Amino acid sequence: MTVAQTLDAVSPDRSFRARVEELVARHQRLWREAAEGVPNLGPRCGRWRRFRTARATRRMILELAEETETHPDGERLQNEWRRDIRQRLQRFGEQRLGWPAGYRSLLFGDDFYATTVAFVRRARAFDDRLAMDDVGQAMRNLWIVNSLQMLFGAPVELTPSAFAYSMLYPYTDNLLDDPSLAIELKEGMNERLGRWLRGRRAVPCGSRERRIRELIAIIESDYPRGRFESVYQSLLAIHEGQIGSLRLQHGQGAPDRETVLRVQIEKGGTSVLADGYLVRGWLEADQEDFCFGYGAFLQLLDDLQDAAADREVGHATLFSVDLGRVPLDRLVGKLWSYMRRVVDGAASLRGADFDDRKDLILRNCTFLMMSAIAEHPELVSRGFRRSLERRWPLGFGAMRSLRGLAQRRFRQVRDVLQRRKRAESLWDLVT
Asked: Closest by alpha carbon to 236, among 219, 259, 255?
């Protein structure tokens, strides 16, 4: 079965497909209209302030690492330890990074921590051979679900469907993104996955596909077919978006930029659109639009972070196509402007009740954008980098150094805790 035939077999119904096409067209237009200048990240931040923030961040990393090595035993002491850590991080964010006071109940609530721990435990129970990196990949989608729960006023919790959909990512994405695997193998898996999403029968091929079928069954138990048909239409829409992206990988010749933009917007947008439906079971039109835009700019942020790796293996994205020919200043400026327009756009998400929630999402995504530039300064011109740094609390060199320090100390802390607690693996420390 060809990619085109697979698309025909797994597409959502015509009415839902028409809504997706409208969303793709709208967000292509929003992207084209987005400003291209240097992002206005806030008031200017002097060199001395950036230096002091970097020094304070370094001190915080070292202190937290040292205290984590003496992580207490017993639930009461552990709760006190976590509460102290949260309070210190909260003060640091407010004093050094300008976080609003509203973050105290959002970013530092117990629900986010409890949901993450519950997810890791359930992931291990589901498949104890899954690597921690794969669990981390799945957890990134869980955090998107949690951010939508927070935004829509739903309880921040681990639902069965949120677990199952998040876990689908390491089982499907890693296979589809592997350039060493034959297109025929990917097409076969896609065809069977599409049949399961439609509620049809297909025999799983191997242990990976058996796990995928189990995860879809979990979603079916949470959202019965017939009553929540839009949930399954949204899952078919992201599946179709992934297949369209696969076609870019295996297409002949270099695709034009408008095609690349459309495919990446559709893949990212439908991904978080499905998250939204799994949070509520249904969505209003402007909530659909927000979820779609949220997913689109998260996809573009991923593409920015992976631009060099994508170019090396021949994956066409908006950023990898231009990388090495011209600085990506214009695209980075458009990305930030586009993120602002999406976050500010939803009519039902306006007002004081939503301001801190949307600000948290935008700040987190701006941090991802700045981290990508810090790690890969060659993406943009020197003048563009300097203009960004002047309005950011940390210099890019300091960000690279602090990330390296945090990674080294995390590995050391992990080794110390494994020896002290006689844990065989990192799994045993977090479950």
From this structure: 219
